[in-house]
Amino acid sequence: MPEQICWLCPVCGDPLAQTQRTLRCTNRHSFDLAKEGYCNLLLASRMRSKNPGDDKAMLRARAGFLNAGHYRPLADAIVDILAPHLPSGAALLDCGCGDGYYAEAVHQALEPTLRGIDIAREGVRMAARRFKRITGPAFAVASTFDMPVPDAAFDAALQVFAPVSETELMRVLKPDGVYCAVFPGQQHLMALKEVMYEQTRGHKEPTHAEGFTLLEERRVTFEMNLRRNTDIQNLLAMTPLNWKGSREGKAQLRAMNALDVGADFVVRLYRR
């Protein structure tokens, strides 16, 4: 693992060096690598629940939906926005990487040196499996509010829907580093909401990243013509609507084999 983007020990903050299947710091704190190659750097004392983050069902539904290509226009937009600022070999941190779908799109197109973190262990496991050919642990279970990476180590950071600390982003990005943030737009999945609720409201406009300079804002909208019940079920299961919506609406969606629904995203690129 390149020294400038090594993982840091979550106990003492010293750099972690890899010896076979273990990461160890000079103070002898050690962390074993999982068989998929990721490391768990989220201390039990800092976990609010036994399995924090998105659960397995949600992550697997999201992976099924994304792997079917339904959000590919968003992935392409992220690549297009990052491309002028991320030359080959630059270092990218995916904050809240989930199953690694967007990181994979960026990596295939731009070939950055990649690191990804997520608080959900299952998501990190899935991401590590996507990138099993990468040497060294590219992914770690960790909080985006306490990132176990060095100061000023990254040329770019990516955040798709995940909560993140802007203070931490400032710390881990290089002085001219860029930060790509993706949020749901006001009309995102409105057709799905109309099945679930009698009255629907759009998403609120996301606030701007404090302390960063906005370089570009792009609205990414496209229509998804879902023609498989599996895709409809995966879309529902990967969103908060799965536990917030009405029972009747869920039953209706379970019976549907076709749904036309619009995707609406706000993609912003900031400079540190």
Order of helices and strands: EEEEHHEHEHEEHEHEHHHE
Strand tally: 11
In angstroms, what is the radius of gyration?
Answer: 19 Å
Question: How many helical stretches?
Answer: 9
Which percent bin holds the helix content? Answer: 25-40%
Low-confidence stretches: none
Structural class by sheet pairing and helices: alpha/beta
Q: Tell me the β content.
A: 25-35%
Biggest beta sheet summary: 8 strands, mixed
Mean pLDDT: 92
Strand order in the sheet with the most strands: 4-7-6-5-8-9-11-10
Question: Judging from the principal axes of the Cα atoms, what is the shape?
Answer: globular
The N- to C-terminal Cα distance equals 25 Å
Question: What does this 3D model show about the protein?
Answer:
- The chain is an alpha/beta fold and 272 residues long.
- It contains 9 helices and 11 strands.
- The chain has helices at residues 56-67, 72-82, 101-110, 121-130, 166-172, 190-196, 229-237, 241-244, 247-254; strands at 17-19, 22-24, 30-32, 39-40, 91-95, 113-118, 139-141, 154-160, 173-184, 213-226, 259-271.
- The strands form 2 sheets. An 8-stranded mixed β-sheet has the order 4-7-6-5-8-9-11-10, sandwiched between helices. A 3-stranded antiparallel β-sheet has the order 1-2-3, with no helix packed on it.
- Helix 1 (56-67) packs across helix 7 and helix 2 packs across helix 3 (101-110).
- The radius of gyration is 19 Å and the shape is globular.
- The relative contact order is 0.16.
- The mean pLDDT is 92.
